[in-house]
Specification:
Helix content is 64%, strand content 2%. It is mainly alpha-helical. Helix 9 packs antiparallel against helix 10, helix 9 packs parallel to helix 11 and helix 16 packs across helix 18.
Length: 495
């Protein structure tokens, strides 16, 4: 039974969540507008794929840039992300055409001939949505830089919807705790994650798996064909958003297996076969279709072999895995702290320097570990402080986040990165926190529950004051760090 039905949201709470959704949207809009194109996390490749999908072209190879996308990739690219010199030339669109024609033609020829989009085998869901959004912008007579930023502004409604979904999930797990119901969406509204400010498929992962997570919790209580179909489709959508979401699907599969073992013990397995069949079909058929597409067109079931070959990575012998520095205290801390720091802040560069303060990185990593510890302690030592449904949700949250982290650890030890810039032989760690974003809502359930436990029996007024201070500190630190970006001549404010 859904306990949130016994604790209906008040009018005041609904107004607050609407305000948080609006703040999330405004936050993402302002910083998306401030960042120029194209960041170092392959943003130009994601734009190219969105434009291809807008034309109904599903890539079959790591092809060159589309003819429609190439001019955007050339004209609106800022050198500020990788150029070490603080002095940059004015944007091409502000210079006389005669002065830049030859340079633009050379760069465009590169994108149309030599360039290879190694993201081409990524699953199609995000790019289908982004392609439809691109066509909508063109229908409204947008062009040039305005159309390019319109594509990035797709993130605005997506993050607003994410805050709303986070609230519903927190209400499901903590129906009696107002602080937790509002703290989870509040952190999303103020999260300084730079992946939210660029064109990329990571932005959709927290929505798709967040929906699957909530539906699985409901399904565990009342398994029926309707919920099974919705849950299966949400799991399929998670896979069809990004290949790196596979560990989240593994955690979900284990969750489902435990549920059906429980049903088997009660002797109701025969009546549950239609439900399980519906779930498996809705989740499995779309996934199988895309795997077959990749095998036919890219030569392997995930389509990642071509990307790995392009990057120059090679597989490490199994015996060498155990010599990886991640198995030392220093290496483990390097991996975990770097992963948690970029999970909160992203991994953008500005003039070839990370957009993050070392002190802030440590604070994000340490507080994440501390509050997760506070969350797990009552589950392990004093389970009577939580309901059975809450324990199920929190253990599932931990399993989801741990699976995502473990997957990146596995990738770190299993490859020799050769001469790759990142990861590299000198820094052989996958510390891209954006690859954990699918587990954002589960992580925040743990994080805020730990914060609530750390504050003990403090009144809600004190808890909300602490929450407000944390959010203000996050926003002030992000604004101070990124303030120099707002003056870039290459951003939306200077079009």
């Amino acid at each position: 039974m859904d306990n949130s039905a016994n604790h209906p949201a008040t009018a005041a709470e609904r107004k607050i969540i609407l305000l948080l959704c609006l703040l999330a949207a405004v936050h993402v809009f302002v910083f998306s507008a401030a960042f120029p194109f194209f960041n170092v996390v392959d943003e130009q490749m994601h734009v190219d794929l969105a434009v291809k999908y807008a034309q109904g072209k599903i890539p079959r190879t790591p092809a060159a840039a589309d003819a429609e996308a190439a001019p955007f990739l050339v004209v609106y690219a800022s050198p500020e992300f990788l150029q070490t010199n603080a002095t940059v030339p004015p944007p091409a669109w502000k210079q006389p055409i005669a002065a830049v024609r030859e340079t633009l033609a050379t760069k465009q020829n590169f994108y149309r001939t030599t360039f290879q989009n190694h993201e081409s085998a990524q699953p199609p869901l995000y790019y289908s949505i982004a392609g439809a959004w691109w066509r909508l912008g063109k229908t409204n007579w947008l062009d040039g830089g305005q159309l390019l930023y319109w594509l990035r502004f797709l993130n605005v409604p997506l993050v607003g919807a994410l805050a709303w979904l986070a609230w519903h999930t927190a209400r499901k797990v903590f129906p009696e705790n107002l602080f937790l119901r509002l703290a989870v969406p509040a952190f999303i509204a103020f999260l300084p994650q730079t992946a939210f400010y660029s064109v990329n498929n990571d932005i959709l992962s927290p929505l798709t798996f967040g929906a699957a997570f909530l539906l699985l919790l409901k399904f565990a209580e009342t398994p029926n064909p309707r919920l099974a179909a919705a849950t299966g489709l949400a799991l399929a959508a998670t896979f069809l958003t990004k290949i790196s979401n596979l560990p989240l699907l593994a955690a979900a599969t284990i969750f489902i297996v435990f549920k059906f073992v429980e049903i088997f013990r009660t002797g109701k397995i025969r009546s549950s076969i239609p439900v399980l069949t519906t779930l498996a079909a809705c989740a499995g058929l779309p996934v199988a279709a895309w795997l077959a597409w990749c095998k036919i067109n890219f030569g392997d079931f995930t389509g990642t072999a071509a990307k790995i070959q392009f990057l120059g990575w090679t597989h490490q012998p199994f015996a060498v895995w155990w010599h990886h520095p991640i198995f030392t205290l220093t290496g483990a801390w390097t991996f975990i702290s770097g992963l948690l720091a970029t999970f909160w802040q992203g991994e953008s560069l500005w003039h070839r320097q990370p957009l993050g303060w070392p002190a802030a990185n440590v604070i994000y990593a340490v507080t994440s570990l501390i509050f997760m510890g506070f969350a797990l302690w009552p589950l392990w030592r004093r389970p009577q402080t939580t309901t059975a449904a809450q324990r199920t949700a929190l253990w599932f949250s931990l399993a989801s986040f741990a699976a995502a982290v473990g997957f990146l650890g596995f990738l770190s030890i299993s490859y020799d990165f050769q001469d790759c810039f990142y990861p590299s032989r000198a820094h052989p760690y996958f510390t891209s926190g954006r690859l954990l974003l699918g587990a954002l809502i589960p992580f925040l359930l743990l994080f805020t529950f730990g914060l609530d436990r750390a504050l003990g029996k403090c009144r809600n007024a004190i808890k909300f004051s602490v929450l407000a201070l944390l959010l203000i500190a996050m926003l002030v630190a992000e604004t101070a760090l990124d303030w120099k970006i707002f003056s870039s001549e290459y951003n939306w404010f200077h079009l």
